[in-house]
Design goal:
elongated; 3 domains; six-stranded mixed beta sheet; 6 strands; alpha/beta; Heat Shock Protein 90
């Protein structure tokens, strides 16, 4: 049986960092037991076997620690049930190769844990950097745009007050101008709020917000008449949306990324694809625990010499920030473009 088991630690990752820590902690005990066993075996060999006799209690204690280690490893996806059973059998049979293989497994786990901790620290640093960059952008927009507008309104109101008694007509004209500036400031505030998070997500929810957004680019529905196609303000583009009736509660970042990626993809369809139809599909992959967004059109497709622009990079970056992927490829051999995004969801509670 020796050498017949290949540990999954080399090919899969535990469900979370805490799980990896738990398995590695048990593994350190296994490692220690192995070292003690080798040491006591050497002593017995050097003394002709007169000392260091292993008792039944020692064996039972070792077996218990190994059983806990194997159970944790299976629970966190490092071992399969079959591998756990085979290792348990080999350990009970006193197979020294099984002990050595467990030790090697734990050394790999230790390396994985160190790498996981380094990755986590790097992600934290990136998050802090991104947050500070966003704060700087907001401060700049508020200071240069809204701040200047409000300061101008203050001066304008002072001037209007001075003109009221002497020249009411000029004061009235100035008030009309100040009103227009105030409306512009309100529009700027709304844009700032929209850039942070589209209000439609809070007002309507993700699915209805996508329906509303898609409707801005063309006619939504199948079986439309030729007159309705001609009436479309986007060259007859017909859109369809497929989404589940119920979605589980989603993180705000996932909703925003899904909405923005759809927005960018639809803009590309209208501007570049020369498509007649476009289909937007939103679904939950229960097995992979991901949100899947697919946008497919029947347009001219991607040119062979196309360069990745700001829009495509933006979609990929939004997905990557959440640990997901966004793939842009040909929809079929005859043309069209397909944008497929998969965003991981939080682990479901048992």
């Amino acid at each position: 049986m020796g050498g017949g088991v290949h540990l999954s630690a080399a090919r899969s990752t535990p469900s979370d960092e805490q799980g990896l820590r738990e398995v590695a902690e048990y593994g350190r005990s296994v490692h220690l037991l192995h070292d003690l066993g080798v040491s006591s075996g050497s002593e017995r060999k050097g003394t002709g076997g007169r000392s260091g006799k292993t008792t039944k209690e020692d064996k039972d204690g070792k077996s218990g620690i190994v059983a806990q280690y194997l159970s944790q490893a299976r629970r966190h996806g490092i071992l399969s049930r079959r591998e756990e059973a085979m290792f348990s059998h080999r350990i009970r049979q006193g197979n020294e190769g099984a002990w050595e293989e467990l030790v090697r497994c734990n050394l790999r786990l230790e390396r994985m844990l160190r790498q996981s901790e380094a990755d986590l620290q790097r992600y934290r640093e990136q998050l802090v950097t991104m947050r500070e960059e966003e704060r700087c952008r907001l401060r700049r927009d508020l200071h240069d745009g809204l701040g200047s507008t409000l300061a101008g309104l203050t001066f304008g109101l002072d001037a209007t007050r001075s003109l009221l008694s002497q020249n009411p007509r000029d004061a009235s004209a100035l008030l009309a101008e100040l009103k227009a500036q105030t409306q512009g400031a309100i529009a700027d505030i709304r844009q700032l709020v929209y850039d942070l998070r589209p209000p439609a997500l809070d007002d309507l929810g993700l699915v209805e917000a996508l329906y509303e957004q898609v409707a801005n680019y063309g006619l939504v529905g199948d079986g439309l008449s030729e007159e309705q196609r001609k009436a479309s303000r986007t060259n007859g583009l017909i859109l369809s949306v497929e989404a589940p009736e119920y979605l589980p509660p989603l993180p705000g970042a996932v909703e925003t990324a899904c909405y923005r990626i759809t927005q960018e993809a639809m803009t590309n369809v209208v501007r570049h694809a020369r498509a007649h139809t476009c289909h937007v599909r939103l679904s939950i992959d229960e097995i992979e625990n991901t949100l899947e967004l697919e946008i497919t059109d029947d347009g001219v497709g991607l040119p062979e010499d196309h360069c990745t622009g700001v829009g495509l990079n933006s979609m990929r970056e939004r997905a990557a920030e959440l640990g997901g992927r966004c793939i842009v490829c040909a929809a079929s051999s005859t043309g069209g473009t397909r944008v497929l995004t998969r965003l991981p969801l939080p682990a479901r509670e048992e």
